[in-house]
């Protein structure tokens, strides 16, 4: 993510763990937790199961702002489950089945609790079908910003980090539970629908068009999105994969946004020379003309850009940033929000790489600029543990980028190049932590790096220039 405007921040909610029965010879079926246990956002996501796939069949009518349809969720129980939760905000559930049998459900806040007719044994795959609908809205009480469903003059935009998905579909809304994803979105004919992954041909019937998008690589829920409205779509192939870019009709056809996004393939190819093969089946970008989207987000396989990034002219740097996240953040995803510097540090470093490639300035000059101007004494957070309210802080982005370059200088270019590709290969389609990065860097370089990482990411003091 790159912010174009500052977010308002607030504290996060408290947590409570469900009580489980003592073990006995017979399996004890207990309720799945109502949070995934993330130290920063304990209520995000849920416990007791692991989603493999979401399949959404939805209809949105911009005239009434009503969204309705079904979500089919295939998951595997990770405990003997008596009931389990999904995250769903503001929308009403009208029917739930689990493996074809009617299931009870109750909603409380953004938690939907599903109680199947019988328990689900640990290790069993089960399919939940949820019929739901209503008028979606943003997450006004989110700890950070106000992600989620946003009505626009011609349609809607559902987008946001660290959470947004629960405003439009029932979800295990934490990046540790990645899943494949398929969206069928039916809208009035004449509107366009953009989303993640590969597009199937749209079909129109009775004044409504159905657009289908599929993401075959496991995806963190905050990286899913939908954009509905009037867009100019350009479809081609790049490196044998579909390349789909879209610019809001209200933005100029040959303006800075269009020109910058048109370089998506070229920038991807450049980054692949550093990070290894591009990890997804599709690529592209979407530029919205909505001032309330004051950021760009690395939505999987097709980032979404707010208009502010192109207000002053071409901006390939933001494109390089969001495309770098396809490796760092999307393919290799967070296991906990504390580690967000793994996303933003490498994406910031990628901006410097691109500037060097474009002969703007060298990576070393970019590092020096940030090092000389960073608020060493004022920045309240550390890079490696910024706190829930500061996950988009300078320590995560600027000091995170500096940490990546300092690591390169410390272990040398050969080990560093090897590390980048080993990281994106070993953790492809998975999740990883800061500890995983430190271990791999030490293994590849043969150096003990505890002191290096302590100085750069867990302390606030200014480390010496590497
Ligand atoms: Zn970012």
Automatic annotation (TrEMBL):
InterPro entries: Aminopeptidase_N-like_N, Aminopeptidase_N-like_N_sf, Peptidase_M1, Peptidase_M1_aminopeptidases, Peptidase_M1_dom, Peptidase_M4/M1_CTD_sf. Residues 314-456 form the Peptidase M1 membrane alanine aminopeptidase domain. Residues 53-223 form the Aminopeptidase N-like N-terminal domain. Transmembrane segments: none annotated. Keywords: Hydrolase, Metal-binding, Metalloprotease, Protease, Zinc. It catalyses: Release of an N-terminal amino acid, Xaa-|-Yaa- from a peptide, amide or arylamide. Xaa is preferably Ala, but may be most amino acids including Pro (slow action). When a terminal hydrophobic residue is followed by a prolyl residue, the two may be released as an intact Xaa-Pro dipeptide. It comes from the Bacteria. Belongs to the peptidase M1 family. This is Aminopeptidase N. The lineage of its organism: Bacteria, Bacillati, Actinomycetota, Actinomycetes, Micromonosporales.
